Input
Amino acid sequence: MRRAHRIAAITKQLVDHPHQVFPLGEFADLFQVSKSTLSEDLAIIRETFNTLEMGKVETISGAVGGVRYMPYVPMLDIYSEVSRICKKLQEPHRILPGGFVYTDDLISSPAILAGVGEIFASRFQELEPQYVVTVETAGIPVALMTARALNVPLVVVRRQSRVTEGPVLTMNFLSGSAQRVETMSLSRRALPTNSRVLLIDDFMKAGGTLRGLADLMGEFECDVVGKGVLIETGWPEEKLIEDHLALIYLQEVDVESQTVKVKPADWIRKE
Amino acid sequence: MRRAHRIAAITKQLVDHPHQVFPLGEFADLFQVSKSTLSEDLAIIRETFNTLEMGKVETISGAVGGVRYMPYVPMLDIYSEVSRICKKLQEPHRILPGGFVYTDDLISSPAILAGVGEIFASRFQELEPQYVVTVETAGIPVALMTARALNVPLVVVRRQSRVTEGPVLTMNFLSGSAQRVETMSLSRRALPTNSRVLLIDDFMKAGGTLRGLADLMGEFECDVVGKGVLIETGWPEEKLIEDHLALIYLQEVDVESQTVKVKPADWIRKE
Output
């Protein structure tokens, strides 16, 4: 196989398995080339990804060394990706009775979800989360795509426990917006103590669910290293959690005029 | 940019967006090369993917033409991927009181899920499903990864309806194993009539849930083109659905000896 062929094959392997370290010897054996030839191949891939801002390719030296690809979405791409979702949210047919906004179709498009997952991964990977944690149901797709981009397991907290989970830890929490007591539960074996976890959800109003998730992580003696939400509402102003990263602000839903006011979060800049 | 660089960039774009058609002009403009040069680049990628059985790269001619990548997992890789999951299922610590098998950690590993999603996509893509449909909660990760590999939206049927979904269609169905009446509901706007849908779930005993899903699809006037399950139990022998594709047979769980008997489905062959 010539260089161009090797580059196609290696790029595929790296992109298909973000954050997975491939030993150089594995590729060298597969293509029957020396490690120095292989290093030149990798340099070309790295250069290309850098120039086109397509993510990072990193070579790790040492015994457990190798090469890995890490998704990285530059600010300009975050801006255009988030703006595209905002535009979709403003479609008038989304407004439901009671001022709710229909979002199910957005969080069911694999392309949108993959993009959002890579944005969260880009922003949180330096904190080295070992698990992505969410609560069923609507948060699962966004959380799974984030977990995929980070190559860490997804842990889904349940609203109700099931017999197939074994012993579970169950906790009541106060849903912030409705001031209602709700329940969440998680299998004892789902999460080892002292893990570094990233909380991801699709939608946040007062933040009661995320607050509850964070408290549950405390019960598992885990360390919450970050919290990400796709959409945050402007109301209530007082939130129950701090330091969360939202991608989209939902400012207002006007049922009369059938308009949704929405914008990218302030940290997302055009340049 | 030289050929090797272009190939790295194009491969990344294709692999990141399975089943998405990229017009050749888009790449030609980006790299400032002629379409014939670009065609040579694509031929190299296609050749490499063919030789290493890494999926298919297809060029579509005509006005809406372009190039796309389709995941395709060869039989030998299906066998080793499924065997690896079987091996994990046989770990004795998975057996829960009542003879249940703990599988949550398997369906939370993005690498395993991505592999399973590509296997289902490989087997069902010729039937051209337009939606992947599952029911909450445990089926969502497998279904989402299948939807991603096929580049079609994921539709999640709920156990209970929520106010944020708008008008829903609710249906009772008989859970096959427990002979219990259960409920599923789906937003009216989630699925257009006459869609071709692929049903995906993580676990199947008698098949009551899949049977219910298929009936619900009938209510939406949709056409079920395929049904895939990750794990099927050997009991009961009589199933409520036909023509489903399972990857793994769970033959027996022996609580006494703490053993799980499990094997790849019969259609999966070693050679």
